[in-house]
Amino acid sequence: MFHFINRFTVTGDPAEFERILGEINAYMSAQPGFRRHRLYRSAKDPNVYVETAEWESAELHQRALRGEGFRNGVQKVMTHATAEPAPFTVVRENSAAGL
Length: 99
Fold this sequence. Notes:
Layout: E1 2-10, H1 14-29, E2 34-41, E3 48-55, H2 58-65, H3 68-77, E4 81-88
Antiparallel strand pairs: 1-3, 1-4, 2-3
């Protein structure tokens, strides 16, 4: 499993940022190897967002990044935010009993 985390600081219109990010997510979720995406908005600072994505492998994620649907969307979203993207590895994971 490959985990990708991206922290955004929105400098433009938050609604437009979310709309464009939704378009990127629609493209990415249709790509081979996509597992899950979550978008969080800070309750402390509404201009800060964090997205997490899970992929079957780093290779499949990299292949999806080369697609035009991703590249065009990123160009648009970066007019509304700055990003701090990075791959992560799971160090520890816990679940509630029965899950």
